[in-house]
Every structure is written in C-alpha cells, then in structure tokens.
Design goal:
427 residues; single chain; mainly alpha; 81% helix; elongated; 22 helices
Length: 427
C-alpha cells in the first residue's frame, strides 16, 4: 500500500483474532494509537483514502475527539464518491462519540442528513436536520444553522415540492452565510436556490444563481463546487433552449466528475446529457445516456435519482412511440417514489404516463393522470410543459366536453388514489 514498506497479512482471520485477543487491553489501545500515527505519517496526499481506517484505530485507542475528525472526513469522502450507506455509517459512528450538546454534534447531524436525503430517507434526514438546527441555535452556531436551513430547504423542494417553504428556508440560509461572509456557504445556498427557480420555470433567475455560485467556487478553488455549478447552469440554459451551450457545460461537468471520481455527479451529468438529447428529439442517444446514469444510481443506491432517471427513460421511449417500454419504466419509478415519498417525481411520472397512455389509445386514463398532476402545486415546470403537450394531443382526439370531464375526474382524486390506479393499470 505504501512505497518502501513491507506489508504482512494473516493467513486466516481466525488466527488474527486469536492473536489480537492475547494482547492486553491497555496495550491494544497504545498499539492502535501507534498505527494511527504511522498511517498519518505515511499516507501523505492519500490520507483521505485512509480516513476511515485511521478513525477506526483512533476509536479503539480511546481517542474519540481525533477519531471524530477522521470519521467526518471519511463520511464526506464517501458521500462525494457515491458510497452513501458507507457515508451514513461513518456519521453514525462519529455521533456516538460526541457529547449530546456540542458544536461538533450539531455539525454532524447536518452532515449525516446529506447521505440520507440521497438515499431517499427524507423523514430521518429531516429529523436529523431539525435536531441539528435546534442545537445550533441553542449554542449560537450560525454557520451550522445556515447548513441545516439549506438542508431543510432541499427536502421541502425534493420531497414535498413545497416551493414557498424551500425558498424561505434557503433565503434564510443565504442571509446567514452572507452575514458570516462565508463564501462556501453562500455559494451552496445560491446553488440550491437556483434549483428552486429552475423547477418553477424561472430560468433567467436560476442562471443568475448558478453563475454567482460558480464564481464563488472558482475563487475558492473548489473543483467539486464548480462541477455542481456547471450542472445547474446546464439545466438553466437547457430549458431556455440553448442546447449547444447546455451540451458544452455538461461535457465540462462530466470530465470533472470522472477526474475526481464523483460517481453521484457523473450519473447526474449523464442524466442531464440524456435530457439534452431528448429535447433535441434524439431519443436513441437520450436513452443510452439515461441507462448509463441509471446503472450508477442503482450501484450507489440513490433511490431518488433512480426514480427520476426511470421517468426520463419513459419520457424518451414514449416520445419515440415505444409505449410498451415507456409504461413499465413509469410504473417502476412510481413504486420507488411511493416508498420514499417524493411528490415532484411522482407527479412527473404521472404526467409522462399520461402521454404514453394517450398515444397508446387510452385517453380516459391519460386524462385522469393529467387532471391530478396539472392541478397539483408540487408539479415542476418541465413536468407541467410535458403534460400540456399531451393535453393538446388529447384535445385533437376527444370533444371538449370529454376532455373537461376527464380532467375534472382526475382533479377530484387524491394523489395516492391516482398512483394506485396507475400501478394497477386501471381507470
């Protein structure tokens, strides 16, 4: 593992365990501390790779405070690499070592929520964030307050599609970040506000947020931050129909993601490249990008984006006239969103399913889905545009009275009922 050193392995794990148990407990602690110090001294620039291992030795050495530092680093590294459950595990170990009312605990509660949100466990993530915010407010840690508010804004956006709550939380986070003159937190809050604007169809405002965020990240020399800003900027210009610029931005972000081993960001960029191809009506290329993204999202267990990408695969297949392929994609995505509770993604699936049903000769079921989705406050702007397109097609097939009756039927139903019918394939 290290140049100029010899490494020895036990032939059998059982032999190692027996040998370990013969070492006196007080000596074990001393030896674990020595190993941790040795790893620190020899890892050099690769110390991030060994953060989890160093932390484990420091835990066994009884050096909790130093172990927490490495566990936090290991959690952050794992999250960036897409190892979400591993990141959550490191955070849990660190939390177990910290006093109940400490600044470090508030920070860790917020950090741990990031992996949980990507895993689709919004409820636990929200609880962690609220606990972190309460503790940060109690001890006067404004930076962690800003981080917690940002996380809660993200959940309001991704889980509930509550754009007002998301904006309010994020604007408070941004105000605190600016008050602290904290570039990193300011850039992150702006990035998240950009996504709220993007989902509501406020594309010039989103572009401005992402551009400011990118400038701050560049000043800080944060490659990962620039990568995220490029993805956001690509989305803003994509929906402003500046396809060539979007393509160029996504290619830049894809290169950065692959260079840094950021699997989550790589998959997100592939998904966005699929969107670019789909909006250009190159459905075959779009589906290939989506499939590549889906493989990574499944590998890292990012349920939210698995569902989103399945819906996108459905959109591309439906637009290409392959309704038999599109409908199973939508249903699989709906099953996942039902489990994790992501309203905007569920509504996007219903809008897409409506288009496939309409083109597949099932206008009644299509209108039921559209009646629900187009009248729901959590429906994103791009989903709404897709639904309006399908509705325009239905108006050429049915009388105005039939269309309005179908829309009213869907509008009167609860989302859960429409999803259940969609999954069952019934009216």
């Amino acid at each position: 593992a290290f140049a100029g050193t010899d490494e020895y392995l036990f032939k059998h794990a059982l032999l190692r365990d027996v040998a370990y148990e013969t070492v006196l407990l007080k000596l074990r602690r001393r030896y674990h501390a020595l190993v941790a110090r040795w790893l620190e001294a020899h890892a050099g620039e690769r110390i991030g790779e060994y953060a989890g291992l160093i932390a484990g030795h420091l835990e066994r050495a009884g050096q909790a405070e130093q172990a927490v530092v490495y566990l936090r680093q290991a959690a952050e590294n794992a999250r960036h690499a897409g190892a979400l459950r591993e990141a959550w595990g490191f955070s849990q170990r660190a939390l177990a070592l910290l006093p109940k009312e400490s600044q470090g605990r508030a920070e860790l509660l917020v950090q741990a929520s990031k992996a949980l949100s990507l895993l689709g466990d919004y409820e636990t993530a929200r609880q962690q964030l609220e606990a972190g915010l309460a503790l940060a407010e109690k001890i006067g840690d404004l930076g962690t307050c800003a981080d917690a508010l940002e996380g809660l804004g993200g959940i309001a956006c991704d889980q509930k599609g509550d754009w007002s709550e998301a904006r309010a939380r994020l604007e408070r986070s941004l105000a605190l970040a600016r008050q602290l003159a904290d570039q990193a937190r300011t850039a992150s809050a702006l990035w998240n506000l950009g996504w709220v604007d993007l989902r509501q169809g406020h594309y010039p405002q989103a572009r401005a947020c992402f551009s400011e965020s990118q400038g701050l990240y560049q000043e800080m020399g944060s490659r990962f931050g620039v990568l995220l800003a490029l993805i956001g900027l690509g989305g803003a210009v994509l929906y402003m129909e500046e396809y060539a610029e979007a393509q160029a931005l996504y290619q830049q972000s894809l290169a950065l993601a692959r260079q840094s081993g950021a699997r989550q960001s790589e998959a997100a960029t592939l998904n966005c490249l699929g969107e670019t191809a789909r909006l250009r009506q190159d459905y075959e290329t779009a589906q290939q990008y989506y499939r590549d993204a889906l493989d990574i999202f499944r590998e890292i267990d990012n349920k939210v984006n698995v569902a989103t990408t399945l819906a996108n695969l459905g959109h591309a297949a439906s637009a290409a006239g392959d309704h038999a392929t599109a409908i199973p994609h939508y249903r699989e995505a709906l099953r996942i969103t039902t489990d994790i509770g992501s309203l905007p993604t569920a509504l996007d699936c219903l809008v897409g399913l409506a288009g496939a049903l309409a083109r597949g000769g099932q206008p009644g079921r299509a209108l039921t889905c559209l009646g629900m989705a187009l009248n729901h406050a959590a429906t994103q702007n791009d989903s709404r545009a897709l639904g309006e397109q399908s509705l325009a097609e239905l108006r050429t097939q049915l009388s105005p009275e039939e269309v309005e009756a179908g829309l009213e039927r869907g509008k009167a139903l609860q989302l859960e009922a429409v999803v259940a019918k969609a999954l069952a394939g019934t009216e």
